[in-house]
Write a structure and sequence with these properties.
The protein is of the alpha/beta class.
Length: about 550
Amino acid sequence: MDDVVIRALSSHKESVVTESAIVLDPTHVSFTPADTVAGLGVTHFIGIGGSGMSVLAEMLHEQGVAVTGSDREEGAKTRRLRELGVNVSIGQRADHVAGASTVVFSSAIKPDNPEIVAAAAAGAHIVHRSDILALLLNAKRGVTVAGAHGKTTTSALLAHILSVAGTGALADPSYAIGGSIQTPDGGVKDGGHAGSGSVLVAEADESDGSFEKYHPEIAIVTNAEPDHLDHYGDAAHYHAAFVEHAQHATGHVILCGDDEGAVDVLEALPQDTARRTVVYGVSVASLPESVRAKVGALVTIESEAETRQSGSETFVLHIPAGLLGEPAGESHVHVRLAIPGLHNARNATAAILAAAFLGLDPSRAADAASTFRGAARRFQIRGCVEGVTVVDDYAHHPTEIAALLDAARRRYPDSTLRVLFQPHLFSRTRFFAREFAEALAKADDVIVTCVFPAREKAADFPGVGALTIVDAADGVSHDPADGWIMAVQDMCQAAKMLCMRAHRGDVLFTVGAGDITQMSTVMLRVLEAHREMHQIRNATMPERQ
């Protein structure tokens, strides 16, 4: 094969390399602020069925760009795109990129992918998915939501607020969210939309450092608890990426002061960025004076509470005078959410503040937030059979699991909580095994099942699996101390075992970012089968004399 031109990882400069030396750099900036989607030409997405890729493909398609794509297997996202008129191929072959001017890859795609090799040979413009998102942000009033946790919920909530309460240019926002959104009728809608309004709300994934290329008007940082250390190496480099991202905001930075990692980011911000930063949270008043004096404003979450068993979260936002351009005194905004947990009070605060900075009255934003049903797979109740409730949740980091189970305890204070957990990534399982065990100990009964590998290979992580977390639970405080956690490799078997142990009033959770979500359906079927079996048994038993 002839030598091809590809971007070199180390220098971000063009180098002539051979096929075997192709390097895909997710942090390379491929477009300037003056570039538009009109210059993309035919655009092909490799792995178009992924949550982050499908959203962007749909947005480009809605804007008139000729989009094609491929994925290794059929799924809900590929079927939806095909229904919209996008040419989606199953399997990845060199001929799929024929005629493509731009080829988009995600961090899960390897340099030896046949479509990458063919695109390079044909001289196509090979760009990371974040380049497409950056291009879309350049043309709108961009709001990015970054953080180890809460990105999807916060970005979905802001999009919902603007969709419900926005008028004029704030109505009908565009959004690029890496997940589906629950609707009031119990359904879900996709996380990508190219609206007619002036705003684009985007979930900013920090996993590979590519979020540093975004230049939004408003940057939200929900937290910065170290994660993805397989990429960053340590917490210092992880936090440095958030500092870089925040500095790119042309307007406000909205940052959670309840998170230790986010405060580390705040302390590292240059003064000009810090003065444009609004810090929110429950405990912001207790931040060191040196930190409080550095920032533009502090917004406090007060009177946070959840009505017993209601799932209704209430709190009051204390907004200082002058923050939103009104010289009148400080204001107190009352908020009621249909999604439970203190973590969601924080998420909603960030979304309401962003909406206010865009020009929406904060009280109207709060009213709109009250009708938000949550992102899909975030404390999503899948059904209830004979008094046993099944809940599905995306939590895949120890802090997310702890927040989920804390919210569950408040909503179901008298219930036994049983969790089927699928770890996501071997590297994360190895890094946080003890933390996972401590978070899962908030449940009464836990089964850990097979690791969802995503972009990783089991062969690269010998000895890492479900037992890694179970072994790390040795010595973790739990009542009762024995038998509360076990490892079962087969997901279906584990789901059935959890159902067999369930009693009326129990709550069963499927937890994780992988295909564990499918087990909620399995659980409901098993519970329904048990119910029917008991009905038949009772109907055929002879009456007692």
